[in-house]
Design a protein that fits this description.
The structure is a single chain. By secondary structure, the chain is of the alpha+beta class. The protein folds into 2 domains: about 10-170, no CATH class; about 210-350, no CATH class. The protein contains 14 helices and 7 strands. The chain has helices at about 10-25, 35-45, 60-75, 95-100, 170-185, 190-200, 205-235, 240-245, 250-275, 280-285, 290-295, 300-305, 315-335, 340-345, and strands spanning about 85, 90, 105-115, 120-130, 140-150, 155-160, 165. A 5-stranded mixed β-sheet has the order 3-4-5-7-6. Strands 1-2 form a two-stranded antiparallel ribbon. Helix 9 (about 250-275) runs antiparallel to helix 13 and helix 9 (about 250-275) crosses helix 14.
Length: about 350
């Protein structure tokens, strides 16, 4: 426990964890088998308090997995529990009221919807509270540390209104998974430049570098969330409603990628080009994949030009071209009649940004 954090009622921790379990019971099956097993492995590691270098006993993990799935089965369809905070019992989505009680005591609570009906919750120590950032004076940044309750889905960062939430435990876990995948198949990929710069050649060297890596990744994520906040000026309130209305998995991924591109092309990448260090750009491109890469394939070419020493000229041109393309696409999606029409529009080849000649 951090020096400033006061003990929490066990009933509160249990209520948040139960809500996490109820959410996982409803949506864990949506993951592919490979992603499910990878996420469950790291969830087990968190639940047992094991470090990234701890060997996992297959039999024990197997028993835990069966017990967890059995618990989820029993929770199918259960309503979320109110939060027992002091004399009150709060709606679990009432972030403002919950954090008004928790933050002065050194804790932070998170709750929200990651997709149509897909809720997520966490309860963690509050490492730091930042206000009046030079780049975004309207935003507050909550730095969440050790987590007492969490679900299978644990995004490393989120924007909730005017609050950016950075979950440092999830950031470290994301970096571990990225390093582990790279270590199994080293190649000429963006993370290779990160590994060279930080001297990542085995697990002990990764763990030694993890605090510096996590600080850099936090900075990249903060720029992204600032970009999300600026994107909201032209996209909301309609975009959130559209995102929750789209149930087609592919369309939902592409819809998220459109907004992510707007945030990063408008704010994150220009900021990283201006401020550095170079490792921050390599980190950003190490997760430029999937729907994001498919929607803007030419961005990787601009990155390679930067790596070759063009001073970022190709990347800046790509940012300007991509920002205009995805803003126009986003506004078109908002004008469409329904979610099915939006899904069809995203499936059209013209949704992809081309850098042209």
């Amino acid at each position: 426990m951090s020096a400033a954090a006061r003990p929490l009622p066990a009933a509160l921790v249990e209520a948040v964890q139960r809500n996490c379990d109820i959410a996982d019971a409803a949506h864990a099956a949506e993951l592919s088998l490979c992603n499910f097993l990878l996420q469950m492995r790291e969830y087990y590691r968190w639940q047992q308090g094991l470090g990234f270098d701890a060997a996992l006993a297959r039999d024990e993990v197997g028993r835990w997995l069966a017990e967890t799935e059995s618990r989820w089965d029993a929770l199918q369809g259960e309503p979320f529990e109110p939060l027992p905070l002091g004399a009150a019992r709060l709606d679990p989505f009432d972030l403002d009221a919950a954090n008004a009680w928790l933050i002065p005591r050194g804790w932070v609570y998170g709750a929200g919807l990651a997709g149509p009906g897909r809720a997520g919750f966490f309860l963690a120590e509050l490492k730091q509270l930042e206000r009046e950032l030079a780049a975004a004076p309207a935003l507050t940044v909550q730095h969440a540390g050790r987590e007492l309750a969490r679900g299978l889905f644990a995004p490393p960062a989120a924007l909730q209104g005017r609050t950016v939430v950075l979950r440092h435990a999830s950031i470290e876990r994301w970096l571990w998974e990225r390093y582990e995948a790279f270590a199994l198949r080293r190649g000429d990929v963006p993370f290779a430049a990160v590994a060279r710069s930080f001297g990542l050649h085995d697990t002990p060297s990764f763990l030694a570098a993890l605090p510096r890596l996590a600080a850099l990744q936090s900075r990249v994520l903060l720029w992204h969330e600032i970009g999300e906040h600026r994107a909201a000026r032209t996209l909301e309130p309609g975009w959130g409603a559209l995102r929750l209305a789209v149930h087609d998995r592919r369309a939902a991924l592409w819809l998220r990628a459109v907004r992510d591109h707007l945030a990063d092309l408008r704010v994150t990448l220009p900021a990283l080009l201006d401020e550095g260090p170079s490792e921050a750009l390599h980190l950003w491109f190490s997760h430029h994949e999937g729907a994001h890469a498919a929607l803007f394939p030419g961005l990787a070419d601009a990155y390679r030009a930067w790596c070759a020493g063009d001073g970022g000229r190709a990347l800046r041109r790509a940012c300007a071209r991509g920002e205009a393309h995805f803003e126009a696409l986003a506004q078109e999606l908002l004008r469409l009649a329904d979610a099915d029409a939006a899904a069809r529009r995203l499936a059209d080849d013209s949704a992809i940004c081309s850098l042209g000649a």
